Fold this protein.
Amino acid sequence: MALTQVSSNKCSDGDQKVFEHDSSELKCKMKFAIYLPPKAESSKCPVLYWLSGLTCTEQNFITKAGSQQAASEHGIIIVAPDTSPRGCNIEGEDESWDFGTGAGFYVNATQEPWKTNYRMYSYVTEELPRLINSNFPADPEKMSISGHSMGGHGALICALKNPGKYKSVSAFAPICNPIQCAWGQKAFSGYLGPDKSTWESYDATVLAESYSGPELDILIDQGRDDQFLSASQLLPDNLIAACSKKKIPVVFRLQQGYDHSYYFIFSFINDHIKHHAKYLNA
Amino acid sequence: HFFNLDSIGVELKNSIKRELHCPVCEEMVKQPIVLPCMHSVCVLCAAEVLVQRGYPPPELPAEPKTPTSSPITRSPRQTRRPPPKTDRLDRVIRTGLLCGTHPGRRRKDTPPVIMLFPCPTCGKDVELGERGLADCLRNLTLERIVERYRHTVSLGSMAVMCQFCKPPQALEATKGCADCRSNFCNECFKLYHPWGTPRAQHEHILPTHSFRPKVLVCVEHEQERLQFYCRSCQRLLCPLCKLRRAHSGHKIMPIALAYQTLKEKITKEMNYVFANQDSVQAQITQVESGIAQTEEQLNQCVSELRSVLAERQGALAMLLEGARAQRAGALNAQLSEKQSLLENAGLLTYTQELLKETDQSCFVQAARVTHNRLVKAIENQQHFSLSADPSFRHFQMDVSRELKALSSMDFIQAPLAPVIDTQKTLAYDQLYLCWRLPQDSAPAWHYSVEYLRKVGGAGALWGRVLSEGSSGSNGTHCSWQRLDDVGGTSAVIDKLEMDSVYVLRVRGCNKAGFGEYSEEVYLHTPPATVLSFCLDSRWGLHAERVALGKGQTYARSVPGMTLLQAADRALTSCHLTSDLLVADVSITQGRHYWACSVEPGSYLVKVGVGVEAKLQEWFHLPQDMASPRYDPDSGHDSGAEDTQDCPPPFCFLTMGMGKILLPKCGASNTSTGPLTAPLPPRLGLCLDFEKGRLTFYDAHSLRVLWEGTVDCSAPVCPAFCFIGGGALQLQELIANLFQHC
């Protein structure tokens, strides 16, 4: 699969690039951002996958989060894909900001008219890593995953559903229990249908309750003044409870004064990259 | 992480060289292959050895396919280079032997020969597979290590140039690409491996002239990568090999798992060896510092001695000086006196001249005065005596003692083996152990007493001190119990089990540690719990003849005034008194033991038990020895009745003359004469109330002397009888005798 470079900017001694390709899972052209640290010139580097939240594209993270400095220091490649297939001309895809375009929810849809294109789960866990490993100096054994909000939900479920595939996982204000919140219910009923049992395999809290695999080390940062937290969209307590029961180590930090925005991500992204570096550079 | 070849010492480098050598040519391996016995040799050396052995020329392992064989992944400037020519290869070719890479000659016409390769490292022949050397995989990892080693060794020698820089700007290569098999400088590498294309995932290596294929491929299935590992055969398998029957039921795992497992294992083992080396090094360091410390101490001691010696020397020298000064002063005074006497010299000369005078009256005239003067001079001389003692008798030194002490100056020795005092050591209610150190032993700060109960009863073991008691001689028994930090030279061990043999030993401890153990002493504990009692002095009828002392545990029989007076009147007939002493406790049940010492010079003493009521009865009607009504009592009816229905109400043994009379049960002793035993220093008695049996022992060895019966239908108490003079000491409880903490 050929990659075409869309842009390239030198940043923190490395290169922030954006590529475009034809996706076989999503059946459309997809863009992704990739940051290559200076270390990539001389040896293969581990990869951190960043999944963005509702309404984002591959641009928001690389322009607002300020992750390049830490990535450069720790020698980590950061790949940030888009949040949903684009330009598929599906009816209703642009109607809401929390369903359809920009709101892929990182599932493989089973319902029409979404099931042909909306296969973000397979894209993130299979097609994208394959692409990265064969076209960049990436160490195929060293992968980690992180994300924000809907992307946090995506990161958690990818890690819980693929024990051993990711060396570490972290999230900013993730949607922890989509089955129980308005966002999740709207998206899942649209993509997966009315049968709630099919929703469970994409819910981080439910997955944590039945997780068995190598030990995961989860880092979650949550702004205390996050409006969506108070609107019961995020429900981190449910996830924490499930993890405590299963003895999955979780570090949950409630950050005083912070909200849901990229300013919050900017403030703590260094900690997260350091967390991942601990495992990726081991 | 591999050895950092850049920063290791020469010795280590040589050690590594040995790891990288081919056992055949003894140089660094070139294109090594792995034999079935796991040893690596150069592929050409292997071929040569086989040819020399007489085998037909072997097929060499083929060049495997690599990612560089597809155009899109190959570097644009890849040139297919011929394999490097060496003398050996030429020789092999020249003698008409085949090289396996020759196209079109894959299969041989002759049937496959199973070849035996003499492995120099194993020292024996190894069987090669059907395809001979071609069955052996190349040891790419070893090649890479040799490459890296060579690189560090030959750093500074001929530089490798970038093959892609446009002249005139040819730069030195900073890296090689294993997939493109070329060398690049940084810029050219980036140019030819753009990110976002498949070439971006090529493997960086150090610049080199000899590229080797990146991966191992199966010898049988040339296109297949070796993705599996068979643990049972210890072989790498490709997916097709895995399906073979030869591996059915074998433990096969994916190569990633084998990689991980083996990596972890050898990392752990390597760390263990490092740690071990470290620990040995640490111990060596400890020993060295210990020695340094001890040397330091020794030097300090000696320098202390030196300074004291210098001090003494100074002090004594000062004393001498003082004496000298004092005497010199006195003598100086006399010197001037003596000088005045020298004035006599003039007088003497004058006298000599005077004596030449022949005229008698002139002579007398002058000589008169001279005579007086001479007398005076002589007087002075005679009274002269030195006012100071010229002798220095008081200032002689005898340093023989100090010399002896100094010459025997030595490191502190541990105390010698203590000597156990067998007279004072005894077993009763508790064990009492008493010892002393030999004269020439170093002093001990404290002692450690060890004791051990030997399983089994007193039996026939004698309580002698055994020599060189080794704990292993009697098979296994439980470990020694210890009493540590015993000050003084005695110890008490309580919480004993009755009717057992205890082994005890002791050793001293001082700064030098523990000394040797004493010899082991065997102590027998009494067969029953110890009964503690005193002699009852209530019955005061014979108070004038029996003196009780020492807390009512000692009794002495004396004649008493009455008998003294009676004996004064009598000459031929005599009165012997029989005085009974009773214990202040009586026994109503169970088994009890007590011991006593009868003074050897006692006249006649009886020791035993009796029914309390019966003894009381007797007491109030004292039986007189000389009275004909008195039946001699020896503890049982002698000869009067052979069969006895009930045991007598008393049981005694009689002792005197330093012997004990041992009565026989039965009437058959008259021919041999009465049986006696020597009186032991301590006598033990054990009463079994239920069985009505009284046993007499030598209290030290617990050897049974005699056993008798006694009627135990009523309370029974220990009793003693003095006939004539004598003395007896009850054994007191060790617990009461020795206060210990």
